[in-house]
Task: structure prediction
Amino acid sequence: MKKLLYIFATVCSLLFVSCEEDITLDFDKNIQRLVIEGNLFVGETDYNKIHLSTTTDFYSGVFPTVNNADVSIKDTDSNTVYQFTNVGNGDFTNELFQPEIGGNYELTVMYNNETYTATSTLLASPEILNVDQKDDGGIMGDSYEISFNFQDNANEENYYLVQMTYPVDDYLGVADDQFTNGNIMNDMYFFDKEDLKPGDNLNHSITSISKQYYQYLSKLLSISSDSGNPFSSPMGTIKGNIVNQTNQSNFALGYFHIAKRNHYTYTVK
Result:
């Protein structure tokens, strides 16, 4: 019996040693898809553009940009079409495009003889009413607890994108009003006191988003959380709201969404 155990242990040790060899996985390098980044924020110059690129080899850190496409956004309420001009690096812009709250818009991208479309409605976002700060927050009472409060609309289902930038990190998350419909909602944060000091600024923004976009972002954030890295490669393909009208099997990645963010800057006391 002791001899059998010795042989088993020896085999196992050899297996573990052999596992140190590098392995390169042979991913399919031939499927190239168009990526459409169409997240526009009204009144924010840096986010008033459509960015086009293509997927690339799994082991490559460079995403090829697309500059030879035809890009436009149509105001479907007035039938006005805004042509977006390529300014290089895969970016397409139109400074005259000024979407309005409640407006309905359709993105059209024509690339490689195929037409991609998506629609978005510009929703009104809530304003931050006030901010509460506690200096003894957290389980041990040694953290800052800061809550941004806003009023939820009781007459509709609401979904929100919240973002926070502070001196040592950034945060992005989504929320809904399933259990708080019509109430004052709290976007609450806990900060270690070594990361936040009196006088530091917290730059907060809140955006009303559609249910479909909420579900899309929830999946992306879930993958980021599981991997521990928000910039990691997804474990599977997550489709957005963009449809290839010419060949549906050759779908694009990305999302088209127009929003009006409300910003609030809070100075820690």
The two ends are 70 Å apart (CA to CA). The longest strand covers residues 128-137. Helices lie at 2-18, 211-227.
